[in-house]
Amino acid sequence: MCLRLMLVQLLLFMVANAALTTAQLDQRPKPDCLRKCGELESIPYPFGTEDGCFIHEDFLITCNSTDNNPPMPLLQKSNIRVTNITMEGRLQVQSYVSKDCYDGNGKNTNNTPSLTMGEYTISDTQNKFTVIGCDSYGYLRGTIDEKNYIAGCISSCDRLEDVTNGSCSGFGCCQIDIPKGLKGIKAKAYSFNTHEKVSQFNPCSYAFVIEKSRFNFSSSNLSATITKEIPTVPTAVDWAITGQGNCAEAGNNKSYACKENSDCYEPPDHSARGYLCKCKDGYQGNPYISNDCQDIDECKQGNYTCYHQSFCVNTEGSYMCECIKGYKGDGKIESCISNPLPFFKIGLGVGLGILMLLVVSSWIYFMLRNRRLIKLKEKFFQQNGGFLLQTQLSERNGTSDTARIFSAEELKKATNNFDEKRIIGRGGYGTVYKGFLIDSKPVAIKKSKIVDQSQIEQFINEVTILSQINHRNVVKLLGCCLEIEVPLLVYEYVTNGTLFEHIHNNDNAPTIPWETRLQIAAETAGVLSYLHSAAATPIIHRDVKSSNILLDDNFTAKVSDFGASKLFPMDVTQLSTMVQGTLGYLDPEYLHTSQLTEKSDVYSFGVVLVELMTGKKVLSFDKPEEERSLVMYFLSSLKEGSVFEILENGIVNDDNNEQMREVTELARRCLRVKGEERPTMKEVAMELEGLRRMNKHLWDNFEVNRGETEY
């Protein structure tokens, strides 16, 4: 009785499962779905215009028309016009342009468009964020993995003659790349001076995201008239089937979108999270529609190759070439031959071949298994310049100050196989982990980005030089690992966080008195002075900012992150480089000319000095416009004589009042627009060190000891 009951239950389960499978296989859109709307010639499934015609509400396209206007295809979730859909995961949409226009009376018209498209992402490979104008700058805001993102660029020119057609290098037009995974964008255009100087030929600023293949800058773009209409530009958007993970995860999902005779894939240049489907080789149709990927009859279409004495026979998903009677072989590989060998000879040959193949394959397998990892490590070691580094280190006779070459196993063990819980920082040049060496010594291990092969020698030279810097205020480079694809750098571990965290964390800021802040400034200036004028080969840091200044338990400054640094030969006064740095700290002269000099570090240090005095962030977009840029706010306050009003509460008193005036004046000199008018870091370091040592009694007796004080 129990056995009979179990058999009935099993039969019911099999019937239910078969019904579910059949329902999934037969899943198809309605046969009468509208597949064209206005200028959009094709709306393929999984997209559709009505219930039963699309796979998910993110794929719903409305097709509405108004009086005397043709139908317009719009993405239902964002009301954005769609002009093209490809099965390779791309949409082309018309996104709005932000404009900031001024007439002769200084009156402006502007708009801030947004592009919010549900699960769709802005293509990072097809688009560029672009700003047009001669007195203009623009910002692009959005989210990446639910984190806020902001970036921008500056465009300026004084005359139309300065503009080069087809070039967006900053004269009349500037462009930046789109990061991977960007969603919900908002573009905003601004004018520095309401186009007062250039209004005759350029009354507007424009900011927008556009397909780079659809845009070629021309000087005529600068003379656009002021209009009330909001223009649009073509923008490429990535789409994918989302909510089920990647291909490996989605295959077990009941709502798996790839139907019979199709494959799941994840395009390498795609920014949308999810997967796409395509018909298998030898099939054609829509892979998202059940039973739509049908076999291609290569024999009927003539799309086949059969050698002599053979003919084409279609198979499911492919074809074969059969030899005519009296011939033998595979006509798909070579011409068929007559008089085949006797069966026993063929069997003997095949048997011996298989036996030999097994012996040789086993031997090769065991050899390759033991040598594969060694070869791979040697490849990366050589590729990352390991032999060159070994040579340079051996020439230094292996002194105790020389950088070490660590093995990959050592650093994996030190970081618990690069556990995410060990991450202590992320930056534009890599990820930093906290690790412990065999002797329990804590270290900071930086996993860098892939090194450009054309710059290996320069990278190794930089590593060896930095390893020789034995300055108490520089985070010491202990060594590196070159056995993996991306080089690993090992630094000493600094315990008390960054200067940025202490200045801008309201809980910690009051604990840093002015004397300590002045000490940090003097120590940082001393390091930069050492790098510029005392190192064997001068080094320009190129990314001086408060988050790159670490502090130990005694608040001693430790300058870090030399990922953007440049070696600066003594016989060279400036270098042409691609502009790198952090917005807000970046030298404006370097930004406009791409000419790097040691004065670029001086400007960035000046920003840090103002940050120390005011306790304010260098860029604050949530504040009034005159306070958004700390440098501009500081300089304008200094000019108006109200600079003491913006200094941080509690750091100014009667004893240091004159000292603060000296530091504000020094900061002003560091922030001069022309690099040649700024002091050198050596002069800055000497002046700050002098201010540190100057006590209250020297100021009380200023007239008596004036000669000594001036000296």
Automatic annotation (TrEMBL):
Keywords: ATP-binding, Disulfide bond, EGF-like domain, Kinase, Membrane, Nucleotide-binding, Serine/threonine-protein kinase, Signal, Transferase, Transmembrane, Transmembrane helix. Residues 295-337 form the EGF-like domain. ATP binds at residue 447. Residues 418-700 form the Protein kinase domain. One of its GO terms (cellular component) is plasma membrane. It comes from the Eukaryota. GO terms for molecular function: ATP binding; calcium ion binding; polysaccharide binding; protein serine/threonine kinase activity. The chain crosses the membrane at residues 346-368. Pfam families: EGF_CA, PK_Tyr_Ser-Thr. PROSITE patterns: ASX_HYDROXYL, EGF_2, EGF_3, EGF_CA, PROTEIN_KINASE_ATP, PROTEIN_KINASE_DOM, PROTEIN_KINASE_ST. It catalyses: L-threonyl-[protein] + ATP = O-phospho-L-threonyl-[protein] + ADP + H(+); L-seryl-[protein] + ATP = O-phospho-L-seryl-[protein] + ADP + H(+). Residues 1-18 form the signal peptide. It is found in: Membrane. The keyword Transferase applies. One of its GO terms (biological process) is cell surface receptor signaling pathway. It is a single-pass type I membrane protein. SUPFAM superfamilies: EGF/Laminin, Protein kinase-like (PK-like). This is Uncharacterized protein. It comes from Dipteronia dyeriana. The lineage of its organism: Eukaryota, Viridiplantae, Streptophyta, Embryophyta, Tracheophyta.
